[in-house]
Design goal:
There is one protein chain. This protein is of the alpha+beta class and 185 residues long. The protein is built from 7 helices and 5 strands, in the order H-H-H-E-E-H-E-E-H-H-E-H. It has helices at residues 4-14, 18-27, 32-41, 84-104, 121-130, 132-144, 163-182; strands at residues 53-54, 73-74, 106-111, 114-120, 147-152. It has a 3-stranded antiparallel beta sheet. Strands 1-2 form a two-stranded antiparallel ribbon. A hairpin with a 2-residue loop joins strand 3 and strand 4 (114-120). 13% of the residues are buried.
Length: 185
């Protein structure tokens, strides 16, 4: 049997009769959220406007959707992620952080274990964007003339594998291909 307090709360939230609220709660094991969904499925409560999601937790911020029980049902999902301005601020912060990392880390080119030159990563990015195919072609061609590439800087790679490990694998593949072409080991 449904608890009287829950029946009254559901009546206030969903604007239904006492009998409808009690029936919904009885059929949903006294779960208030499930009872609201039960009533909606039976046409006793209109669905949320503009789409929405069901949640049993109260979310901060403006509530849209069901007017009577917005504590339990929030409006469109984009409202729970913050405003456009907050999203834009996070994007700008991320871009600034990425830009700073690209200035502090360098792309290093070596030949026979001596450094030929180093570039800030931002310069490599600009070259790759401005003249992609010539840049990639020169990097690949350099592998066949014993040039080796790596990234160096204060930023530590995360996880077990890093970009330098990938570059080493590419160098091994280029060496293998070069030995197959020339017939030397």
């Amino acid at each position: 049997m449904a608890d009287l307090e829950l029946v009254e709360k559901l009546r206030q939230l969903a604007s239904v009769t006492y009998d409808e609220a009690r029936e919904a709660l009885d059929n949903c094991d006294n779960d208030l959220l499930e009872a609201v969904i039960y009533l909606e499925k039976r046409g006793k409560v209109p669905p949320p406007t503009g789409g929405g999601k069901f949640s049993s937790k109260e979310e901060p911020g403006p509530k849209t959707g069901y007017s009577g029980y917005s504590t339990y049902i929030s409006g469109p999902t984009h409202t729970s992620h913050g405003s456009f301005g907050a999203t834009l601020r996070r994007l700008v912060d991320w871009l600034i952080k990425l830009f700073n990392k690209s200035l502090t880390n360098v792309f290093e080119v070596k030949r026979h274990d001596s450094v030929v030159f180093t570039l800030p990563v931002i310069v490599l990015i600009i070259l790759a964007c401005a003249v992609f195919w010539p840049t990639v072609s020169l990097l690949i061609l350099g592998l066949f003339f014993d040039f080796r590439y790596s990234f160096r800087g204060p930023e530590k790679p995360s996880g077990n594998s890093s970009i330098n490990d990938l570059l080493e694998e590419i160098e091994k593949a280029a060496d293998s291909l070069k030995s197959e072409i020339t017939g030397k080991d």
